[in-house]
Structures are given as C-alpha cells and as structure tokens.
Amino acid sequence: MTTSSSSPASPASRASLARPARRQWLAAALPLAGAAAAIVLLPTTARAAPPASAPTPLEVWKDPNCGCCQDWVDHMQANGFAVKVHDTGNNAVRARLGLPQKLGSCHTALVGGYLVEGHVPASDVRKLLQQKPKALGLTVPGMPVGSPGMDGPAYGDRRDPYDVLLVAHDGSTRVFNSYHKKAST
What we know:
By secondary structure, the chain is of the alpha/beta class. Helix content is about 30%, strand content about 20%. It has a 7-stranded mixed beta sheet with strand order 2-1-3-4-5-6-7, sandwiched between helices.
C-alpha cells in the first residue's frame, strides 16, 4: 500500500519530525549555556576589571591672579578631582552659600553638595564625601603655610599647624582633622 505525500502526517510522525529540530537547538544552546556558567564561576580576579571611576567633579571660585589658589586646584586635580574654575573671586559665592566670613579663605569650592573653603587637603574632601555628614562643608580659615597650595619650596617647606573644620548649617564648627606637626619654625 502506498501513501501519498500529500496526506497529513500522523501525530506520532509529526513528533518525530520535531525531534531533530529540538536536538539541533539543544546541541547549539548547551555549549553556550556552559560557557556562560564558566564565566560566572570564574574567580573575580580572572574577569575583566571594571572601568576606572570617573574623576569627582569640583567647582571652584577664585581670584584669577591668585597663585596659591591655582596650586590648590592642581593638588585637587592630582588627587582625582575634575575641577571647573571660575576666575571671578569667591566673596559672592561664599555669602550665597552661607559661610560666615570669619571662616573664609581665598577660594571657595562646591563638591557633592558640600562647600569646601580654602586650602582643605584632598584626603579630607574624600573623607567628607564618604561620610556624608549633615553639614555645610569644610573650611581651613585663612591661609596656613603648609596646607595644600601653601606648601613646598616657595614657602621654605615650612608647615604651620592648622585644623580642617566641619561647618554645620547653623555656622557652628567642630574639628574634622588636625595638622599639628611642625616641620620647621
């Protein structure tokens, strides 16, 4: 008995026709799944390193003719900050941000929602950004010799003691970090 090729296939024969397609799919998919599992199970040191973190944006207002302010900007850039400089002076921005004049210095910066006034070391700014205290920001009032931007051979490598102050929103302060080692007198 002969069957015509135009007759419909039985359910059993349709299932047997579908099996090779499934088998082909599984043969192709299983090695890929195994490779994905191998990548997930690799030790983290064997995986590609994530891209280096982007520099932290910092905006500075300073006098265009102030060399120590530029030296502080250079210090911040060397420590991973992307600095945008406004050479317009800092009195107006300091007043707008609410920093008492007695806590002022020669430049004012904004970073991560915090004010940074004067020659604050980059390490203290990083600490501030990590701790995220409820505060206006940090200040090093005046221009102490030995602070970043007020250091090096131009100052005879002198280091005067100074404090970095944390400024609360009400203007009160507390010592955030102290630099009291004197390298010379």
